[in-house]
Specification:
Layout: E1 13-19, H1 27-30, H2 32-45, E2 49-55, E3 59-65, H3 73-90, E4 111-114, H4 118-134, H5 149-154
Antiparallel strand pairs: 1-3, 1-4, 2-3
Helix pairs in contact: 2-3
């Protein structure tokens, strides 16, 4: 078995890309309320702060910050994925299985990047918010409903027409 080396920093901020096995699936957006519940239930048991997020039909990008004494983001992802999957099954959604019987909804791993500084975080926030445009789901960032962009606008951190000129500082990372 391959053992991935992960950078674990207690209290760190991390950028993640988490993907469904079927990238063409709309499961995440079709069941957005169940996904939100999986996040909130996990946060109650294992706190973390969601700094920025976008949910797309077959994958999501997120930045979160862990508590000062905790570096276990993998356990949190395990909880979110299993809670969401279990709830879908309880609601009668058919989920394919791997040969060994394990549900095949999510890709087993995730992509993670430890944010180094404020500029690194800003670049990743821009990437997250611009992602629905990049994938062709909308032509304006403000038109995608499943994004923390709307919170950033309410808080006065970004204008509602941010990146409408087609310019963004989004990097080619995360997928």
């Amino acid at each position: 078995m391959v053992h991935y080396r992960r950078h674990r920093v207690a209290g760190g901020s991390f950028f993640f890309t988490v993907t469904l096995n079927d990238r063409q699936s709309c499961t995440l957006t079709d069941h957005i309320d169940l996904l939100r519940t999986a996040f909130h239930d996990t946060q109650r048991c294992r706190p973390f702060v969601i700094d920025c997020i976008v949910i797309l039909p077959g994958h999501l990008h997120i930045i979160w910050t862990l508590p000062d004494s905790d570096a276990d983001y993998s356990g949190r992802w395990r909880s979110i994925k299993s809670r969401f999957t279990r709830t879908l099954c309880q609601r009668g959604v058919t989920i394919p299985r791997h040969a060994g019987g394990e549900y095949a909804l999510w890709q087993r791993r995730f992509w993670e990047h430890t944010l180094r500084d404020a500029r690194d975080k800003e670049r990743h926030v821009d990437y997250i918010h611009y992602n629905p445009v990049r994938h062709g789901y909308v032509s304006s960032v403000a038109d995608w409903p499943y994004s923390s962009f709307h919170r950033y606008v309410r808080q006065g951190l970004l204008p509602v027409d941010w990146a409408d000129d087609g310019e963004s500082d989004e990097g080619g990372f995360g997928e």
